[in-house]
C-alpha cells in the first residue's frame, strides 16, 4: 500500500500545482483583451442638460392673410427663434470651451460635439422661415404684385438671412474651437 499512497500524494501535488498555476493566469500583466475598469462615461456623474424645448409650431394665418402679414409673422417667428438660439449659445460655449483641446473621443470632446448638435437643431426654425419667405417671394413674383409688397418681402428675407448667416457663423466657430483649440 505504501506505493499507492505515494502515487496518491504525487497526484495530489500535481493537481494542487495545476490549480495554483491556473490561478496565476489572471494576474498576467500582458493585456490583449479589453480592460474591465470603468470607462470614462461610467465615471461621469453629472446629468445631461435638459434638452431644449421644442420650438412652438409656426402660427397659422388665415388663408386670406396678405403676403405682408405672412412676411411679418414669419419675421417675428425668426426673431423669436433667434432669441432661443442666443439663450442656449452661452451654455454651449461653456461646454465647447471644456472640450477644446480634448482628444477626439474623450468625454469632454463628445460632450462638446453633442452640445453643438443640440444648438444646430435650434437653427432649423430660422432656416425653415427663410425658405417660407423665399416661397412667398416666388409666389408674389408669379402673381405680379406691386413693388411695395415686393420690397417688404425682400426686407424680411434680408433680415432672416442675416440671422441665419450669423447663427451659421456661430456654429462654425464652435466647431473650429473644438477641432483647433
Q: What are the SSEs and their pairings?
A:
Elements: H1 2-24, H2 40-43, H3 67-99, H4 107-121, H5 124-143, H6 147-179
Helix pairs in contact: 3-4, 3-5, 3-6, 4-6, 5-6
Care to give the gist of this entry?
Helix content is 71%, strand content 0%.
Fold and architecture overview:
The protein is mostly helical and 181 residues long. It has a domain at 66-179: Topoisomerase I, Chain A, domain 4 (Orthogonal Bundle), CATH 1.10.132. It contains six helices and no strands. α4 packs antiparallel against α6 (147-179) and α5 packs antiparallel against α6. The longest helix has 33 residues, at 67-99. It is rod-shaped. The mean pLDDT is 78.
Please give the CATH class of the domain at 66-179: Mainly Alpha
Profile the largest sheet: none
The 3D shape can be described as: rod-shaped
The name CATH uses for the topology of the domain at 66-179 is Topoisomerase I, Chain A, domain 4
What count of helical segments does DSSP give? Answer: 6
Number of strands: 0
Distance between the termini: 81 Å
- The helicity comes to over 70%
The chain-level structural class is mainly alpha
Poorly predicted segments: none
Strand fraction equals under 5%
Amino acid at each position: 500500500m505504501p506505493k499507492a499512497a505515494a502515487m496518491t500524494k504525487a497526484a495530489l501535488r500535481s493537481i494542487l500545482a495545476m490549480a495554483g498555476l491556473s490561478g496565476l493566469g489572471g494576474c498576467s500583466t500582458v493585456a490583449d483583451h479589453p480592460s474591465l475598469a470603468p470607462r470614462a462615461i461610467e465615471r461621469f456623474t453629472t446629468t445631461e442638460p435638459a434638452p431644449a424645448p421644442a420650438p412652438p409650431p409656426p402660427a397659422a394665418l388665415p388663408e386670406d392673410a396678405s403676403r405682408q402679414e405672412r412676411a411679418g409673422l414669419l419675421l417675428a417667428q425668426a426673431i423669436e427663434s433667434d432669441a432661443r438660439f442666443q439663450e442656449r449659445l452661452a451654455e454651449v460655449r461653456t461646454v465647447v470651451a471644456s472640450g477644446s483641446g480634448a482628444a477626439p473621443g474623450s468625454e469632454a470632446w463628445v460632450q462638446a460635439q453633442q452640445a453643438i448638435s443640440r444648438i444646430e437643431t435650434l437653427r432649423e426654425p430660422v432656416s425653415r422661415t427663410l425658405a417660407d419667405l423665399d416661397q412667398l417671394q416666388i409666389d408674389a413674383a408669379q402673381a405680379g404684385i406691386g413693388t411695395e409688397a415686393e420690397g417688404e418681402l425682400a426686407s424680411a428675407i434680408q433680415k432672416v438671412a442675416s440671422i441665419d448667416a450669423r447663427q451659421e457663423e456661430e456654429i462654425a466657430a464652435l466647431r473650429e474651437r473644438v477641432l483647433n483649440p
